[in-house]
Amino acid sequence: MTILTKIKTAAAIIIAAPAVAVSQEASDTIMPQQLSEITIEAPKVIRKSDMDVYHPSKSAVDNSKNGMQLLRNLMIPTLNVNDALGSLSAAGQTVQVRINGRTATLEQVKALLPATIKRVEWIDNPGLRYGDANYVLNLIVSNPTVGGSFMAEAQPALNCAWGKYNASAKFNIGRSQWEIGTYFKLTDGIKAHRDYDETFTMPDGSKLTRTETPISGKLNNTQGTGWISYNYIKPDTTVFYVQLFANRFFSDRTCYNGLLSLSNGENNILLNDDAGRKGTTPGISAYFEQHLANRQTFVIDFNASLYSGHSYSDHTERHEDATDYITNVGTYIKDRNQAYAIEADYIKQWRSSKFTAGASYTANHNRSLYKNLDGSIFHQRQDKAYLFAEYFQRIDKFTLTGGLGAQYTSFKFRETNQGSHSWNLRPQATLTYSLNQNHNFRLAFTSWQSAPSLTETNIAPQQLDGFQWRIGNSTLKTSSSYMLTFQYGHNLFNQRVNGAFGARAFTSPNAITPYMYWDNDRLITSYENSKGLQNISFWLSEQIQIIPNWLMLSGSIQYKAERMKGNNYTLYNHTWSGNAALMVMHNGFGLIFQYVKAQRDLWGEKISWGEDFNVISANYNWKNWQFEAGMLIPFGKYDQGSKSLSQWNRNEQHLRLDMRMPYISISYNIQWGRQKRGANKLINADANVDHSTTGGR
């Protein structure tokens, strides 16, 4: 046996012992181990029974100046990180973001210093304690014991009023940390137009086609957020956290002007479609965690938020040479809405197992004043109670998680005494077989409930144009969804290739969907518990280190087939979607290209899609600064839209924005103080406040 072999063997023994202990204790921390002159680091991706753990490389950290940039540089295959627009998604679905287990906003992720992010946990099969999350991204961050940090970023476009600006600071004193931050997003008067045509089929079978030729339009989406927080951490004993925040929508507006031509011979009709909202949402979050004897933990979380604002829409039609309107419809809704949520969990851990039980309560109190209905006021109250228990067990290479939740939902309109209530069960089970650190197989069954929204249940009639109306349905029931997923996760070629292949079957037998019907000469859009949506999808996501720490390729592709059955219709949809990112990093320089083809989703009688998008950017890091220049949509054109397949109204709509924007970005961050491991917030009570919506033609 050579000396080199002996050293490698000794290193393996030294590393193996703590690694086994870590596995048995269900810890997520794997730190570099050092033996004399040899440093052995943890693999970039560690596949666990319930998550994939990513350890940022030195090059990824060095080429990042905030948390979003680090997530982009990690290139998690399924995750689509759009730092230019400030968004996260996975397979066309939303991602719940957490920092040390605590639900966080993307603005707070931006405020993180990359050097403090010790690892990133990617959970594509969240348990019952994560609520209705599709995916969970948890960033484990260390907090300094003294000193603090400061970061700031400005990212303006060069040819229009668009940009993002944020700054934050943290100050640490012993076990306490204070944080203050702000984020501002500017989108003011971006040129936009709408490609739109529709065909109405009347009850007698006659048809009318309306073709809209765009003239002009604009988009506003300017908003700001500010927060201040305090947390106290006494390791392994007590955690206390409180945060005050406020979000302001200064202007969220779309305005289209077009020229209508009708199949009955009427032409040259000027159309104006203008809708938007303004509002402020302050809130508070408080969290307490206490560790007890025998590895028991009690946690409680409280959240509250308020919304004060208004929504409006104006739709007008008139002949070019006339002053009188053919159609003049206006809606103005003023909201004063509240949301409160509290959750308490008990957690008991053993050597290879864990038991969690919890209860939560959420209340939404909504008050809507309709100025266009002579000041009529509608009050809606929605209450949700949720109970669950979940058990986790590890047996050799197998892990099993099983749980059962029960949700009670009730909502009621005060003025009409209308409403409904229901109980729904939520079973969940996951079986994982880990062949080794590089290969695992997972079979998971999950379920969740979706309560009807304020818009879907609000019975106040809302006129959309000359003959289209929207009226909610107060008899809606909470819908249930069920999903069966198989996934094979792999690390190949000495970690040069890592990713996953999977298949998923989904059904929502009583999904809440819109439908249309004629009431005399009015075409009504309302909502129903449909006969169900079913789909099956297959996906492949991979990250390839072409030249480690220098040239990387990441992306995913998905195929989905689905069927929707509702009120007198059965519809089918087949769609491909995916994303790809290519990144080059070397000596402080970075070059990134991203492409996204949005998922086309069937829901009710409509197929909708998000943003088809691409961006290219180059950056350079110098000391505490990063300088970046890029172009949004350098190739192709921006597209977001929908296609209605209703027998009464078939239409297709494409939102086109002038998004070919060159931009620059300047980031600065600095930190001081010793680093220590932070504590996780284990639960998060959901207190999302409702707001009314207008328009929707």
What is the overall shape?
globular
Tally of contiguous helical segments: 5
**Spans where pLDDT lies below 50 across 5 or more residues:** 1-42, 675-681
Level of helix content? under 10%
Mean pLDDT: 85
Strand % is over 45%
- Structural class computed from helices and strand pairing: mainly beta
How far apart are the termini?
A: 77 Å
Major sheet attributes: 26 strands, antiparallel
How would you sum up this structure in a few lines?
By secondary structure, the chain is mainly beta. 6% of the residues lie in helices and 67% in strands.
Lay out the secondary structure.
Layout: H1 3-25, E1 33-35, E2 38-40, E3 45-47, E4 52-54, H2 58-62, H3 67-74, E5 79-82, E6 87-90, E7 96-99, E8 102-103, H4 106-110, E9 117-123, E10 136-144, E11 146-156, E12 162-173, E13 176-187, E14 190-201, E15 207-234, E16 238-262, E17 269-292, E18 296-319, E19 327-349, E20 353-370, E21 376-395, E22 398-413, E23 418-436, E24 439-450, H5 454-457, E25 462-463, E26 468-470, E27 479-492, E28 497-508, E29 512-519, E30 522-529, E31 532-547, E32 551-566, E33 569-586, E34 589-597, E35 600-603, E36 606-622, E37 625-632, E38 639-645, E39 649-657, E40 661-672, E41 675-677
Parallel strand pairs: 7-10, 26-30
Antiparallel strand pairs: 1-2, 3-4, 4-9, 5-6, 7-8, 9-10, 10-41, 11-12, 11-40, 12-13, 13-15, 14-15, 14-39, 15-16, 16-17, 17-18, 18-19, 19-20, 20-21, 21-22, 22-23, 23-24, 24-27, 25-26, 27-28, 28-31, 29-30, 31-32, 32-33, 33-34, 34-36, 35-36, 36-37, 36-38, 37-40, 38-39
